[in-house]
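Weekly puzzle thread! Below is a chain. First person to post its structure in token form gets bragging rights.
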Amino acid sequence: MHDWFHMETNQLRQFCTLVETSNMRRASELLGISHSGLSKSMKVLQGELGRVLFQPSGRGIVITDQGMDLYRRSAPFFKELDRLLHGSPDDPGTGVVRIGSFEVFTSYFIGHLAKAHLSGVEIEVRELLPGRLEEALALNRVDLGITYEPIPRKGIEYVRVARVKMAVFARRAVFSGKALAEIPFVVPANPLEGTPSGVRGLDAWPENDHARRVLYRVDLMNTGLALVSQGLCAIFMPEFVAHLHNLETPAAHQLEKVEIPRVSVSISRDVFLVRRESMVENEVARKIARAIREVCR
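Winning reply:
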């Protein structure tokens, strides 16, 4: 008989995530470890158990009957363990507040939230693109999400809390009076799929209405802002991000809104607080909604 007390419970948790995602790469991203690290961990787990838990299938995997049996017996344990360790998200006085979103909000909003509304509260922040955000909520990896690009998923609900204004920004006087075709842009490198709005980029540029010249593609908005601050390109982003950026930037490198002749791309997007339908509204969620309204106004 195997000594379960000496088996790494972390490996069992990783296996449960692998079953829930049915994808080694996606599971490793949610767990915050490398693909090779997860693969090695799963090999160790199978060796300790003496069972084949999953098999390769094309570019993915298929969970064996033995694997599903292990998952059915392990998953309830970890759900209860998470509840005990993190506390109930319905009780704002206990546990960790787990928030998922993308860089617009994780880099340019969480500081305001923590200082003004959740001072002293332990906060865990996960970088999650639309789609992955909904997945993490469904799997109880985060408690609340923030997005302006919802991708519907069963069991997930969206509460509209504000509107964010989007516009083109560049270093002051660099592209003033230029036509759209003359302005190089920096854009998010990761495309979006399955968005009801039809946008294909995280910056929500209206591509169907206005083609633009893309010169740089980056993973991080901070990288894009560094290029913009040097006068190399323009960026399409929320106005509140430009405002916060300018507060911490020397005047010579600050950004201004670019008015493009005969082209209007200043739009507003709804901002949603995302949660599981089973979650009861609580004071933490209300404070987050209030903080979002403050930065977006």
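Puzzle host: Confirmed. Bonus trivia for everyone else. DSSP finds ten helices and eleven strands in the chain.
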